[in-house]
């Protein structure tokens, strides 16, 4: 059986687009503890430009960045294990809350709740 | 009211992740009519590695690439207006078909159908 | 004839790496006039983390971003025509100044001067 | 003292641009042993589109990709430690050979030789 998508399904689709965009646009960016603040702000504001995006919070974890840095290099490349992300997407009045955190050693993007 | 996500909503979220990933990983890639085939294959196989991705089809349109190329440069940068993408995502038996094509001059990512 | 690279050649190589990195890391980022400031700062600080990079200045041009935005979308994707970049690279005491600006309608990365 | 760049310096600058472009365009791409071939070809052909690029060879190492993959995920994200790259750049008759390989545990981009 095939159905047209509901507003809640559309909202989940839009939420996924934002997560994939944020991750693959910025993965690989050179980052050090001194540059986490500016990168967090830029990532949140960049993805916040996309439609249906109510808010985005990006937390790049200074201590994990510091641990990931080799002495000779002085920077790490941004990857999922160095950050936590939360977003709220609104599609025609249906809101979706999403989150990326580490679970069992891996970054996982999750639908937290659908709110009508 | 807040509900835990259904399988169909999870499938839509996963479908969105794949679209955002594909777009922002590869946007900006130098492309010419001679290199569209290899880029299409690489994009489809790369995103096909992600979980729940049943198949991916990427069509980079040679004629649009040719039109986008300036004589002096010899290549264009990949963007949404130069390609059409279709994907089928399966989450626990619920399948989602999605598509990106041009609509009114802009590339649009769409949920085409949810199949239980 | 083949020679080992001089410090000036190494400096030019490093300068090119920074330009290619900056461009292809951030090309495609969603941008609006309200988010140019945070993106400029993040780009400059990210690339500034790389070795031999003395300073980086990124200017994303609000008026060009505004012109590139379609009413329905509300954002543009970052590309070379929307920004001007200057960098100073130092390799073992040899400095290289570089710049990307528009020339005849296209963004061009240029070596401006080599300073010993 | 400031001098205008020589052809050899320009060639080194162009070589650096290609390396930075290749790295930051494709870092983060989902990759598995089954998809290394298509990604290698696409990377080489994409960067080969850029001016002054005579040839590019990308070798994504299947065994390192396999080692980098977690069982639950089934794929790794492309990064410098998973690949070896060689390029030959020609600028007005001056050729530059460059290479990225692992040195002491880190990927290093190197100028191998300048050939007049």
TrEMBL record, chains A, B, C, D:
Any one GO MF annotation of this record: dihydroneopterin aldolase activity
Known pathway: Cofactor biosynthesis; tetrahydrofolate biosynthesis; 2-amino-4-hydroxy-6-hydroxymethyl-7,8-dihydropteridine diphosphate from 7,8-dihydroneopterin triphosphate: step 3/4
Catalytic reaction list: 7,8-dihydroneopterin = 6-hydroxymethyl-7,8-dihydropterin + glycolaldehyde
EC number, UniProt record: 4.1.2.25
Enzyme class: lyase
UniProt keyword list: Folate biosynthesis, Lyase
Single GO biological process annotation from the record: tetrahydrofolate biosynthetic process
Binding sites annotated in the UniProt record for substrate: 14, 109
Residue ranges of domain Dihydroneopterin aldolase MtpD C-terminal in the record: 6-111
UniProt keyword Lyase present: yes
Record has Lyase as a keyword: yes
Pfam family name, one: DHNA
SUPFAM superfamilies reported for this sequence: MK0786-like
UniProt record similarity statement: Belongs to the archaeal dihydroneopterin aldolase family.
Record function comment: Catalyzes the conversion of 7,8-dihydroneopterin (H2Neo) to 6-hydroxymethyl-7,8-dihydropterin (6-HMD).
Subunit-level organization: Homotetramer.
Name recorded for this polypeptide: Dihydroneopterin aldolase
The gene coding this protein: mptD
């Amino acid at each position: 059986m095939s159905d047209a998508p509901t507003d809640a399904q559309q909202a989940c689709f839009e939420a996924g687009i934002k997560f994939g965009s944020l991750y693959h646009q910025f993965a690989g960016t050179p980052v050090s503890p001194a540059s986490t603040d500016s990168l967090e702000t830029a990532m949140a504001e960049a993805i916040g430009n996309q439609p249906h995006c109510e808010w985005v919070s990006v937390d790049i974890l200074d201590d994990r960045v510091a641990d990931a840095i080799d002495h000779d290099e002085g920077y790490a490349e941004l990857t999922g294990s160095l950050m936590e992300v939360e977003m709220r997407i609104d599609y025609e009045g249906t809101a979706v809350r999403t989150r990326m955190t580490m679970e069992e050693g891996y970054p996982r993007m999750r639908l937290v709740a659908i709110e009508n």
